[in-house]
Amino acid sequence: MQIKMQPMGAYQTNCYIVTIDGKDLIIDPGVDATQWVIDHVSNPVAILNTHGHFDHVWSNSALKAHFNIPIYCPKDDCFMLEKDPFSQGTPPSSADVAVVPDSTLEIGGITVTFHHFPGHTPGCSTIEIGNVWLSGDFLFEGSIGRWDFPYSSGAQMVESLKKVQQITEDFTLYPGHGMSTTLKREQRGIPQWIRYVESTL
To answer: Which CATH architecture group holds 2-199?
Structure first.
């Protein structure tokens, strides 16, 4: 597995290209990601969104048109691709596959699991490929996603944090912003985050 990463746009949202057996998966193509992706893929098979926020899906439409490949998005966030709920002028796109929570899929012969961790958004997910999680805006190095946006939920965030604490395997985390980390490292701080989020409810 090879992973390329480039921060994109004003929010420095990480766009990833994961390459396995000569096939490229494009994850979270945000603002101005189109040309970088075109320059760094050789055999793209799909676009995967961890969630529907504009800074993670901005280039969905352009890349789908350029490569004629499907978009996979968590089911509960598909409306964000279509309706631009934050009025950012996001080019509209639509999911070819509305991913059901906690689903394992075969995409171009690659096994991909969407783990559903709502809170930041209704459909917020991490994408597992091999021993890697593309953790979107759920877990970061030393932090977690915000739960105070429209369509966010602090109560759901608490349940998601409790859920991720039950996972015993370790994974390398490639988050939507910032540097990579590991699940075990971030699990150490999650009890404190649970208490903090609960204090805001």
So the answer is: 4-Layer Sandwich (3.60)
Instruction: Return the structure tokens found at 158.
Output: 């608490």
Separation of alpha carbons 33 and 148, rounded Å:
26
The token duo for 170 is 């370790």
SS3 187: helix
Question: How far separated are the first and last CA of the chain, in Å rounded?
Answer: 41
Q: What is the pLDDT of residues 101-156, one digit of tens each?
A: 999 999 999 999 999 999 999 999 999 999 999 999 999 999 999 999 999 999 99
Q: Which residue has tokens 């004003």? A: 10
State how far the alpha carbon of 154 is from the alpha carbons of 74, 77, 86, 119, 120, in Å: 19, 17, 19, 6, 8
pLDDT confidence bin for 8, thresholds 50/70/90: very high
pLDDT at 28: 98
Distance CA 22, CA 42 (A): 8
Q: Is 119 exposed, middle or buried (0-12, 13-18, 19+ CB in 10 A)?
A: buried
